[in-house]
Every structure is written in structure tokens, then in C-alpha cells.
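Support reply, case 0932

Customer input (verbatim):
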Amino acid sequence: MSRKSSGYLNPEIHGRFDRRKTVFFRRDVFTGFDHFRPDTLDPGDPELLELAEARASWALHDNYPGAFRDTLLGNRKLVHNHAPFRYEFPDSKTATENITAVAKRFGASLVGITELDPKWLYSNERTGNPVTLPQNAVWVVVLAVEMNGEALSRSPDFSAAAESGRGYSKMAALGGAVGEYIRLLGYYGRSCGNDTALSIPLAIDAGLGVMGRNGLLLTREFGPRVRICKVITDLELVQSPNEYPTSEEVCSACTLCAEACEADALSSSDSPTWDILTESNNPGVLRWQFNPEKCFDFWLEIGRDCSNCIAACPAASRLNKLMC
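Our regenerated output:
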């Protein structure tokens, strides 16, 4: 069975999402999120160790210039003193198998392939620049990295925040390496984190999971404990199937994430809805309501990010029962 995320759209209302409407842009994450008050702590307080780890966990993500780009680092060549060329795979199936194997060696926990649905491209980036791609860049390698469940179970402590940061740094290393590999073979490869296109719909289209009540990708292997990056390419690949059940089959009878949300940002209703709550919700999408303003304001209140809805989610076990 193949199920694409566009089945939950009303095309008369839905349009490409402007990344400037995300709560991170509109609340300006860089002016107020880091308001942890060290003046209230003794210099020997062990919580400062967790704070240092949480900040350090983002180091690779925030400082690796090759993480999210579409050109070769330093304009390198695959073979020194040899004119650039395209490696010729025997067929798209062989190319897909190769890219999947290489991505896993670079650290991907899950790999899926999908033909790019233009609806998932942002209309504009945070800079206001329109999102455009080369005409032939119509394939996406979607990559997921697992986050440690034991660490996330301590949410919203700094130790859980550190695991989130480690996930983003792994995204940078993985997406950057896979993109560079594709570019060295002579193909276009745009390495993306949260930029350029919506990651969760692409991951659903690539067969990696299903959208959950908590607004996150739910996977059979890890539930929502994944971070997603992707590489958009003109290398012809093979579409992955999606054999997941519907969101309703997975989440209608479960409200554990909503109960765990201290911000009261998640819906406990029986069924998804077309309603939107804030400007950060794109119209025309059938889903459980999620209020990102409440979620992010709670982050501002506690001075760190929160993963309670991830830690509480039993989707992995539910999906394995439904898909056995």
C-alpha cells in the first residue's frame, strides 16, 4: 500500500508554507530563549554541567559550513586533475541501493526515497528569499537519525535538551556527508536540515512513517524519537513505498502526548480537524490541532526546549502491533 501525505490536503485552501510564519521566526528564538539564570545557581551546581552539555551539543550543527548547501566544499573534484564527470549507475535501482547503503554508513538510522512534491517546498526562507531548485532536482533522499529514549525521558531537563541538540548535530553531519557524496559523483545535491522544504511530509512520502497527534513523524522503529534531514537531487532514484496505517488508526485512541504536554498545546480530540489555531498552522491540512505558540512560550518560560510529547509517545509499540 502506498499512502502519500498529500491525501490529507484540501488543494483549494492549501498552499506552499512561508517559513517566516514558523513560530521560531515570529517569536525570534534568538532573543529570549536562552534566559537560564546562572545568578540563581551556586557555581558548583551540577545542573550547570547539564547546561554546558546542552549548549555544546549544538556545536557541529551551528558551526559546520558544509552541513546545508548545494555546492561542493571548496569546489573539489572526485578525481584530482580530472575534469568533472557524472558517475553512471547501471539503473535507478542500483543508484538507490548505493545511496541508501552509503547513508547508513554515514549514520542514518532510516533512509527513504521520494519524488519531490513541490507542495512541500517552502515558498520563502526566513530571509524572505523565494525557494527555488534546478528543474531536474526532483528526487529526495530523506534521512532520519534516532534520538536516545532514556535521555529524552528526562524531559524537560537539560539532559533531554542535550539529546535534541545532538540530534541536530547528527543531522548536519549526515546530511552534509550524503549531499557531498552525491555532488562528488557529479549530480546536484542540496543538503537540507529544516530549511528548503517541510521534512515530515517528505518523510511520509518516502515511507518512513506517519504524522502523529503530536505533529511529529511516527516511525515503527523509534516512534517520534527521530530528527530528519534530506538531500534533494537530480540523480534518478526509486520511490519508496509507504505501508503505514493512517494517523487515525495510530493515534485516535491515544492521548498520552497531549496529557504529557505541560503547555496544553496538543489536542485530545478523537479525530483530526481542518481547523487552524495560529498563523504557524498552514490552512488546508487535516491533522490534530497543535498550538506552537503555547509550546514555544513554555520553552521560553523554562529556558530550554521540551520533549515531553516525544517521551510519552507509545507509537513504536502501537505501530508494530498494527503492522505485524
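We compared this against your earlier run and they match. Two observations from our side: Strands lie at 110-115, 139-146, 189-192, 210-211, 217-218, 226-233. The mean pLDDT is 93. Please reopen the case if you see a mismatch on your end.
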